[in-house]
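Journal club prep, shared notes

We agreed each person brings one worked example of a sequence with its structure written out as tokens. Mine is Phosphoribosylaminoimidazole-succinocarboxamide synthase. I'm keeping it raw so we can talk through how to read the token line rather than staring at a rendered picture. Sequence first:
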Amino acid sequence: MAPRRKKIYEGKAKILYEGPEPGTLVQYFKDDATAFNAQKKATIEGKGVLNNRLSEFFMTGLTNVGIPNHFIRRLNMREQLIRQVEIVPLEVIVRNFAAGSISKRLGIEEGTALPRPIVEYSYKNDALGDPLVPEEYIVAFGWANQQDLDDIVSLALRVNDFLSGVFFGVGIKLVDFKIEIGRIWDGDYMRLIVADEISPDSCRLWDVKTGQKLDKDVFRRDLGSLTDAYTEVARRLGVMPANATPMKPTLIN
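Then the structure, token by token:
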């Protein structure tokens, strides 16, 4: 029997295991879906497979256009080999159109185009509900310095340009998305790279013509089948065959 792998971390949607070589991890995508800071939960068969394939597609695309990220290669249907990084304790949010919390906070109608892409930060802390934080807090508490923040904004906007173009090419509007950033060291030199995942779990995606939601808002707002939405994204991008059959969700209390 193969030895049990050492679990490094388990989040709401993924598990990280010790990798086969120093400086690597194995990222496993679960079938769990959560919303409203995990107050709403479901197990959706096949969701992890879809997100593994989609995140591979986007991370490979980032590599091809010179945007550094943690992805090394996909190992199987649910796992990928990634570089081990020190995660900056922030979610970096890029907004192109008003939706979700910014609409509620500022009273802007959902779908309104923003004057330019807006980059926001939330502090990664589930117990606090991942609160939005200004740059002043981030620098004062030592989560990142000003140079880090300049580099993070540059990375986030480059990712936005890439993703917006890819999605628009298949008739999907990138409303907003969030990424995480990791630190890696080459000797004494520190670099910031894109980490975690890029998938419909971390993006708001609307059909350009109909406005149909193709992201986790389908689950949040009870708008239909989440796997139908994710499978449609994968089909349009050529990640899954056109005749792929969506899996069925199983709700849990």
